[in-house]
Fold this protein.
Amino acid sequence: MTAFESEREHYRIVYAAGAGPTFAGGGLERDVIDLCESGLRYHAAAGETPAVGDEVDGVVRLRRGGELRVLGTVIRVAGREVALKLLAGVPLRVVLDEQRYLRDRQRGSAR
């Protein structure tokens, strides 16, 4: 674990490719890379060019069902990866439910 990771305020779920939720907004659907109470990272859609400081809103669609309305500001863009600081965040209950869902899914595929 790096010093940066140990300083995080919230637990972050990092998704395997294709296993995470999607982030929809502005007519585009994107794969979520990771998610926590105060932020998320996603792969920008083809042709999408977000800039640091842009305000972004949309819906996170969870694989286990359900949706979350989110509002955030772009704080970092690295290649196609876009990091948002959420103004309207993700409830801790949702993060914990996601972790449980992923763990259960992993256990089921290991059988």
